[in-house]
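User: Could you check the structure of this?
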Amino acid sequence: MDFQAEIGTWLAAHLLGRMPVGGRFGLANTALPVSIQLETGDGLDDIRLDLDDASRIDLQSKTSAGLATSPKSPLGKTIGQLVRVMIDARAAGVAVDPAKLRAVLAVAANALRTLDALERGCRAFDLGGSWATTKASRSSAEREALDLFETHVRTAWATHSATPPTDDELTMMARLFRIMRFSMNEGEDNWRELRRIGHNDVGAADDTADLERLSAATEAELTRLAGHTRLPIAGGVPITRASDGPLGAAVDTGSLIVTGEPGAGKTGALVALAQARRAAGERFLG
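Assistant: Sure, the predicted C-alpha cells are below.
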C-alpha cells in the first residue's frame, strides 16, 4: 500500500501541476491528467488516471515481480486483469484503442531484471506485425518472456470465455501492456522528477501569500458579519449579551460548539467576540 501511495503521489503531483504524463507510458505527451482514483475495482484496479483527451492509464502496483509461471503471481494476476478488460470490451462491442489505453504493471526500481525482457518483447509490437512473426524475430529471452505472457493470457481467458483469444487480441494486449519501474526513495529518479516540476518538501514552505489571502478573506467576512453585532439605529448600537463573558472564557479553555435556536444571535455573539479579540491583539502589538 505504501508503494501504491507513492505512485499515486507521483501521478497526483503531475495532475496538480498540470503536467502531461502520457509520454512516460507511450501515449501522447500533450494530454493533461484530470482525475485519479485508487482501488477502483475495475481495470487493473490499483490506480486509474484519466487524461483530458479521453485517454486512460490503469496501474497495478507490485513492489516485487518476476517472470513467474503461476497465475496467482503478480505478473499472472496483472495479465489476468488485462484479459478481463479485453473480454469486457469484446462483450460490449467496443474497439480497444491502443492510443487511448495503457495497462501498467508498476514495480519497484529493484524488481527482477528478467521483467525487462518481457517489456522489450511487448514494445516490439508497437510498430505493428503479427503475434507469431514478431515474436519469432526477437531474442531467445524475449521469446520466452512472450511465451509466458501468452500462457498467462490464455489461462486467464479460459476462465471467462470459451472462445480463445485471437492473434490480433494477443498483439493488442502486448501493445497495451507496460512494465514500469518507480523509484520514490529520496534522491532516486522519480523523486528527483518531482523536484524538477516544483514539488519540494525538503524545506519550509513559503505560506506568506496564502496567509495574506486568508487574512483578507477573514477581514472581508468579519466586515460583512458586523451587522449582526449592532442594532441598525442611531448609527449602530452595540448589542451586549450576558453570554459574552462565559463565551470568551470557554474559548480560552479549548474548543466549543455554540448552539441555539435560529435567530438567537449565535453569529452576532461569535463575531463580537472575534472583533474584541482582534482589537485587543492590535493594542497589545501596537
